[in-house]
Amino acid sequence: MLPCIQNHLDKIRDYTSYQSASLAAATGLATGLLLLISQVTAPAIAMRQYEDQQMALALVMPVARYSNDLIATSTNWRVDGRQYQLFTASDNGAASGYVVETEASGYAGPIKLMIGLDEQLQIIGVRVLSHAETPGLGDKIEVAKHDWITSFDGLSLTNTPENQWAVKKDGGEFDQFSGATITPRAVVNRVHQALLDLESLAHAKASEGESS
Amino acid sequence: MSNYRSIFAEGLWRNNVVLSQCLALCPLLAVTSSATNGLGLGLATLAVMVCANLLASVFQPAISRAVRIPINILMIATLVTLTDLVLNAWMHSLHKVLGLFIPLIVTNCAILGRVESFASKQPALPAVADGVAMGLGFTWVLVVLGGFREILGSGTLFADASLLLGSHFEFLEITVIPNYRGLLLMILPPGGFLILGFMLMAQRQWQRWLEARQHRLQGEQSCA
């Protein structure tokens, strides 16, 4: 740096006013920079999130089954404290299925689930989007590690009786993993609950439609 | 030139962030369940360290000693947030792998430590060199630690490296032990502590052996 500026700085550096001013300037600079970059990157990040969501939806809802913009149909819906995000698929105006995103509470935190259903509320597929379960035990719910999660395919409330929606240890039809029962139990219960909630929502909608 | 050589020797071995300063253990133990994760966090830390050292060195005449710590922390946190945003926007697949670890860089006391003890007292070029050296030193320890845990814990090495580095690096992905059932302990946090302990022990033993040898050589010289 130039010597004259250096000398000048050496003189004023120990003033409290200079110190507070430099701290303020640094904070201002950092804020400005962050604002600028977050403005610049916001559209790109939104785009990436959109792509991510589209990819997650494609896991459980084949693109051939619908013609609408699935993400645009997203609605949040809550039953007794259970939080769902619902996407409604339609093919040329006729309802062709639903995708439900929800969270099960696993052994080590929330397990984010994506459930794809056809218009009869029969499961097309279930996938885990994120989880923090124990590696080697609970993480078999990932389709990349184990095919357990595909045991939901084709099930519905009509073709599977109430008491079968449980892991084998609890008398149901789903396998548990050796050493990890809590994780599959949480997933099974949550998927079952989501189906029940979705069914009552569909009933409510139907009766509303009749009355109006 | 010898100055730069000693900067690199310090960073990579003699004064290694992890092995001899025992800094940055929080992110280190959290992410090294695989070699790829270690490499990712190592490279991200390296980038932030170089930038932080450069800025600290350039602005050192303007920063009063009394407020240097808040300013340095602010600077590092800003750099980390910028890295996070930029990676998320334009290197999204990398961000998906590293995303969780990037905020951990702020908790990395090694960066603040280098800014404080080296960069803020040095011209720009040595400061950058120190950032590179310390960052590389941190990276290799992370990769070795992650590699050991991954081989023992899941029988693979550099799994998913192509997600981090691009499809050209698929050759790195090796299955070391086929049909391995896995040693859960190594993937979980205790494995991190164990392997780190063994690495520290090996480093200390090697250092002690070197010193003993030097002692012996000196003794022989004085006899002759």
Summarize, please:
Chain A: It is an enzyme of class 7 (translocase). Chain A: Keywords: Cell inner membrane, Cell membrane, Electron transport, Flavoprotein, FMN, Membrane, Phosphoprotein, Translocase, Transmembrane, Transmembrane helix, Transport. The complex is a heterodimer of chains A (212) and B (224). Chain A is of the alpha+beta class.
- In DSSP terms (H or I, runs of 4 or more residues), the helix count of chain B works out at 10
> Percent range for helical residues of chain A?
40-55%
Number of domains of chain A: 2
Rg of chain B over CA atoms, rounded to whole Å, is 19 Å
* Count of strand segments of chain B: 2
SS content category of chain B: mainly alpha
How many DSSP E strands of chain A?
A: 5
Assembly category: heterodimer
Shape of chain B: flat
| Physical arrangement of strands within the biggest beta sheet of chain B | 1-2
What does the average pLDDT of chain B come to?
86
Flag low-confidence runs of chain A. Answer: none
Q: Can you tell me the number of structural domains of chain B?
A: 1
Low-confidence stretches of chain B: none
Radius of gyration of chain A: 26 Å
Average pLDDT, all residues of chain A: 88
Question: Per the principal axes of the C-alpha atoms, what is the gross shape of chain A?
Answer: elongated
Q: Sheet with the most strands of chain B?
A: 2 strands, antiparallel
Beta-strand share of residues of chain A:
15-25%
**Distance from first to last alpha carbon of chain B:** 34 Å
Subunit structure (chain A): The complex is composed of six subunits: RnfA, RnfB, RnfC, RnfD, RnfE and RnfG.
Protein name (chain A): Ion-translocating oxidoreductase complex subunit G
Main location (chain A): membrane
Subcellular location (chain A): Cell inner membrane
